[in-house]
Design brief:
Two copies of one chain form a homodimer. In chain A, the strands form four sheets. In chain A, strands 2-10-9-8-5-3-4 form a seven-stranded mixed sheet, sandwiched between helices. A three-stranded antiparallel sheet of chain A has the order 11-12-14. Chain A has a two-stranded parallel ribbon with strand order 1-13. Chain A is of the alpha/beta class. Chain A is 36% helix and 17% strand. In chain A, strand 6 (148-149) and strand 7 (154-155) form a beta hairpin. Chain A contains nine helices and 14 strands. Chain A folds into two domains: 16-254, Type I PLP-dependent aspartate aminotransferase-like (Major domain) (Aspartate Aminotransferase, domain 2, 3-Layer(aba) Sandwich), CATH 3.40.640; 255-356, Aspartate Aminotransferase, domain 1. Chain A has helices at residues 16-27, 44-60, 75-87, 100-109, 223-228, 238-254, 256-276, 302-314, 339-356; strands at residues 5-6, 67-72, 92-97, 114-120, 140-146, 148-149, 154-155, 166-169, 186-190, 201-206, 282-283, 294-298, 317-318, 329-332. The interface between A and B is large, with 66 and 66 residues.
Chain lengths: 357, 357
């Protein structure tokens, strides 16, 4: 069966070489005579997988020895409440309101302390991220931001450095460009955009926050327990961790984040170039905030947008419908997106314009 | 590569036909041109999977129309606190202390109300489950029990019916015998023993408890939200749900729970028969409480036990070491365990006894 071009926002396209490895590993993995779905999380077979995943992530993201790499359950969304439950504890935090998920994170945080929102682009459809920020109030425990906003199609192209501990939801652009991960107090990301299948969440906690973490909450919600048990307090999503290990191996094989950065820039340039070519298409994000992962655009005519994504799907380009909350069109071109898919999209956009422009 | 005989307690052996299907589906699934890891959870492709999984579970477990079938994150362990957080709310519940996981569930419940423990076999290594129970105190919100205890190797062979709503952690024997699921107010089970890979948890909630559920907790922890959003409040573990759907299809193809019940009984009879044959081996669970899923046994000599599981592993029988908290030996023979593996185990036990008896 032929594979089509998949522009889904997540779960999303994965490297075909990793899919081939996963197919093999499901039957038998690593010479152990046991498939990767069936091996105990407390086996030498799986230890090698999770240890390698941690080592690769540490290298790729330039993490320090004092940052704990955790593989948790519950999606990034569980971190929306788990983080402030553990560390906010009646204190004050700054949240940047750059999209649906940023807003959800702030909402959960309000249960556990005071939330300042010095920036919001909600009134203009979350079409940009802040270029500059004032220093947060005295005593701010952390600044939380969402580095890439999948629904609106915006992205931070810098790390907002305002002198307080940084927390970042990197779900949809993690490892898409070089990053100094050691700058962050806490990083989290669902796997299902740039790292693997859904069902596993990467969390990276700087050791200095362990002391601050609440120890009077259920053990499954305590970062301290997961750190101490090395993500094995209960059975983790072993297959998800396996795929993350293979995807990070693929990234290292390509040449690391510098290499994927160039590929991502090139692919984004091609799609935005087509959007900007004549005026038929309109990019939804402001120029300086355009995402390289989720490209949101429209013809300006809802019916025509619908015709586009339906005709595209029929032509083997799937997942181009915008998020249901905003409509329009969206092309998700994460790390594993192929040049062939991007070229096919650009060609189809040109053809569609020729027929409808 | 040859597959060995895998007696792991979980993640555990899966049906080989399902592994073959999963291998195919990772490349391309259902004629959609997209692999199962890469398809959106909000696609017709995935809707067909999750709808079928729910329908099969409902048929197999004889669930009623008022029972909501959820696929959640976090393992069974998250249900230890999520259930009482939602429904106990200062009330009183009865917990039966039949093992490590039952004890953990009771510990979490104490955060949210009064916990009565009318039965404990902890003093004798959790070697039995209760045969009879008194009626719980007036006002008891529910009785919680663990139907199969993986560490101790005991199992309830009846449903304790004492006139209060029943809650059951069925993680390690779910769908291993006919069950009238409609009797239960709440059922939960991690997938990684009898249903699929780790990373997804089945929860079955009777509708009448929705009103009782706390609505002033983070949305990710509210059963009501997950019911309303049909397990799509955030991205679920899509691949885990896919495997559950395939495993339940395999079960229905075999003839349902009556058929697997006969197979499980036959396999357990063969292993216990060998344990009881001469007196060389000692079963750890009391006779009426023996688990058909996790068979715990010992030679009575820790060094000899170690030699057994090491020699067995070298002979291609893996995972026979007892849980690290209790030592000894354990053979996990879940639904997907093969007759060939059981025969090989029994033969190896006989051979080992001949050499060491």
């Amino acid at each position: 069966m032929t594979r089509i071009h998949n522009f889904s926002a997540g779960p999303a396209v994965l490297p075909e070489s990793v899919l081939r490895e996963a197919q093999e590993a499901i039957w038998e993995h690593g010479g152990h005579g046991i498939g990767i779905l069936e091996c105990s999380h407390r086996s030498a077979q799986f230890d090698a997988v999770i240890d390698s995943a941690r080592a690769r992530i540490k290298r790729l993201m330039n993490l320090s020895d004092s940052q704990h790499i955790l593989f948790l359950h519950g999606g990034a969304r569980t971190q929306f409440f788990m983080l402030p439950m553990n560390v906010l504890r009646g204190g004050r935090a700054t949240y940047l309101d750059t999209g649906t998920w940023a807003e959800g994170a702030a909402k959960d945080a309000r249960r556990y302390g005071t939330v300042d929102v010095p920036f919001s682009s909600k009134a203009t459809g979350w079409d940009h991220v802040p270029a500059t920020l004032d220093t947060p109030p005295e005593g701010t425990v952390y600044l939380h931001y969402t580095s890439n906003n999948t629904v609106a199609g915006t992205e931070f192209h810098h790390v907002p450095d305002v002198g307080v501990p940084l927390v970042c939801d990197m779900s949809s652009d993690i490892m898409s460009r070089p990053v100094d991960g050691s700058k962050f107090q806490f990083i989290y990301a669902g796997a299902q955009k740039n790292m693997g299948p859904s069902g596993v969440t990467l969390a990276i906690l700087e050791d200095s926050w362990l002391e601050r973490c609440d120890k009077d909450i259920p053990e499954m919600l305590q970062y301290g327990i997961h750190v101490k048990k090395e993500s094995m307090y209960n059975t983790p999503c072993t297959f998800g961790i396996y795929v993350i290990e293979r995807v990070t191996a693929w990234l290292e094989g390509l040449g690391g984040l510098e290499a994927i950065d160039r590929m991502n820039q090139s692919q984004a340039d091609r799609v935005y170039g087509e959007i900007d070519r004549t005026g038929f298409w309109h990019g939804k994000a402001q120029l300086g905030s355009r995402s390289r992962m989720n490209i949101t655009f429209t013809t300006g005519d809802a019916d025509l947008d619908t015709r586009f994504h339906k005709e595209a799907a029929a032509a083997g380009l799937s997942g181009l419908k915008g998020h249901r909350s905003v409509g329009g069109l969206r092309a998700s071109i994460y790390n594993a997106q192929t040049d062939a898919a991007v070229d096919a999209l650009v060609a189809f956009m040109g053809d569609f314009e020729a027929r409808n422009g």
